Amino acid sequence: MNFQMRKQIILQTLEQKDSADVKELAGLLHTSEITVRRDLALLAEKGLLVRTHGGAVRPGLAKDPVSFINKAAVNQAQKEYICQLALREINEGDTIFMDCGSTTFLLCPLIRHLSIRVVTNSLPVVNALLDCDVTINMAGGEIDSKRQAAHGLMAVEHIHRYKADLALLGVDGISLANGLSANSETEAEMTVAMAANARRAILLCDSSKLEKDKYFRFAPLSQFDSILTDQKITPALLALYRQAGVNIYNV
Amino acid sequence: MNFQMRKQIILQTLEQKDSADVKELAGLLHTSEITVRRDLALLAEKGLLVRTHGGAVRPGLAKDPVSFINKAAVNQAQKEYICQLALREINEGDTIFMDCGSTTFLLCPLIRHLSIRVVTNSLPVVNALLDCDVTINMAGGEIDSKRQAAHGLMAVEHIHRYKADLALLGVDGISLANGLSANSETEAEMTVAMAANARRAILLCDSSKLEKDKYFRFAPLSQFDSILTDQKITPALLALYRQAGVNIYNV
DNA sequence: TCAAAAATAATCAAAAACGATCAAATACGA
DNA sequence: TCGTATTTGATCGTTTTTGATTATTTTTGA
After folding, report:
1. Which of residues 209-228 of A touch B (CB under 8 A)?
2. Tell me, in Å, how far CA of A14 is from C1' of D28?
3. CATH assignment at residue B13
4. How near does any CA of chain B get to the CA of A62, in Å?
5. Whole-number Å distance between alpha carbons of A168 and A99
6. B75 & B47 share domain
7. Closest CB to A5 among B57, B65, B70
8. Where in chain B does DSSP place strands (E)?
9. Is A8 exposed, middle or buried (0-12, 13-18, 19+ CB in 10 A)?
10. Considering its fold, how many domains does chain A have in total?
11. Are A211 and A228 members of one domain?
12. Do the chains contact at A47 and B73, CB–CB below 8 Å?
């Protein structure tokens, strides 16, 4: 058993299990722990793995988990429910716009295995979709540190260069009277741009945001194809929206 | 049993088992170990196999699976030294291009307190500069999962929309004879675009990459203002570069 | 925070493999 | 058959790899 062979087995093991410890590898390779350590040091030097105390992990695993602000925790159950509804709207091969909402972020784990193309301005979404079957396209521009997303002229221009089958959009507030409203103009701009360049634009909106107006009104409901919400919405409100001609779904 | 016959058997054995040792082959070929070694040396010279201590492996097996993530760990001390040199080139108020190299990534912690604007195509750089005094602008486009960076037409176009005071660029290989070379065309494209749109373009290049040619040659040294490297460079090499008119610094 | 346990790095020694050199065997042509 | 060239094998000093030992560092749990 020479170094090349051990290297194969070590890298293969890491590929399968993400990590391995020195004892385990020594047994697997029928060699001593010191030899394993030496091998790991060599492979780490080439960046083929990352050493840990007692073993090694795949390089991808060691990259610092980016600490994204997790608004997702608020109303998470409802948001995850909405994600399930959104998932049914996605077809293999689609190109999809996803904005920087917390709901779209929660959708990411559910679409990693799909052969689709995602165009987004959200850093957390990009991060959640790295190394999977999804082709990612990020809109460039000035980065808003708070929202961890690209906004502004360049970002909007970027979106206008693409045509998507579907836009999945979060929104801060919706009301029948005033349509969509947001806490920030730049975010609203992005929502409008994505909706304008997608064949279908769907709003992901948990029931707590319905009939809430935020400070900046920016679009009528008629510009969107449908709203996906959760089961906490009252039947009366649901009926009211439908009566107004809005396609709103919670099942 | 002549050399041609042995060659057949050796290559066939490697094809079947991926590797073989000298003892084993000597038995198989009914010959001495020294003869096997001589055969292996000849075959290795032609690239038909790769020698190891005690035997040989198939050429494919010895190749390192390319992994771009966490190259930062390789030669980290030298790279951090280069970052110190680069830091001196940056002035408050500057707009700076930074590409997706591991050296530029290591520079991030050192510039978080500066009031500058950074335009980059690298996700790790963006992440490392979130929530600090730096204004970040990310180039949009298709995301290369391996390199964790935006590349391609849109990304290059994005860069061309901006003008920077300084471009800090990593590079895979530099040689006096062939100039800059890279492992990937898309990365080279970005390097060229950034250099073209910056008042000063500086190469960050640890000494291990000097006089190394990678597979894609893409730019002459004359397009760059200077090279920053580390102290492991030999004085002879340093003199050689300076004699050729290259501004190269390691202090 | 400290102390025990685990893992590591450093040093050294042994074993295996290697390269160089030379001698023997073999093949080949005149 | 002889002489030469090529291939093969043997020997020996050198290098590489491996494993053992011990001191140091890192981790972990109180």
Report:
1. none
2. 25
3. 1.10.10.10
4. 8
5. 7
6. no
7. B57
8. 19-21, 50-52, 55-57, 95-98, 117-120, 135-138, 141-144, 149-151, 164-170, 173-175, 179-182, 198-204, 216-219, 226-228, 248-249
9. middle
10. 2
11. yes
12. yes
The residue range of the domain holding B9 is: 3-62
pTM: 0.81
- Chain segment B219-231, per-residue pLDDT in tens: 999 999 999 999 8
Rounded CA separation B128/B249 (Å): 27
Radius of gyration of chain B (CA): 23
> Is B23 at the interface with chain A, CB within 8 A?
no
pLDDT tens digits for range B140-199: 999 998 888 999 999 999 999 999 999 999 999 999 999 999 988 999 999 999 999 999
DSSP-H helix ranges across B96-234: 102-111, 123-128, 153-160, 185-196
The pair of structure tokens assigned to B185 is 């065309």
Distance from CA(B229) to C1'(D23), angstroms, rounded: 36
A148 inside 8 A of chain B by CB: yes
Same domain for B76 and B54: no
Pair A232, A122 in one domain: yes
Same domain, B55 and B110: no
Query: Tokens at residue B186, please?
Result: 């898309």
Residues in B touching A155 (Cβ below 8 Å):
140
Q: Are B169 and B221 in contact (CB under 8 A)?
A: no
By the 8 A CB rule, do A205 and A227 touch?
yes
d(CA A7, CA A163): 45
Contact call for residues A216 and A182 (beta carbons, < 8 A): yes
From B40's Cα to the closest Cα of chain A, the distance in A is 15
State the Cα–Cα distance between residues A110 and A237, nearest whole angstrom: 29
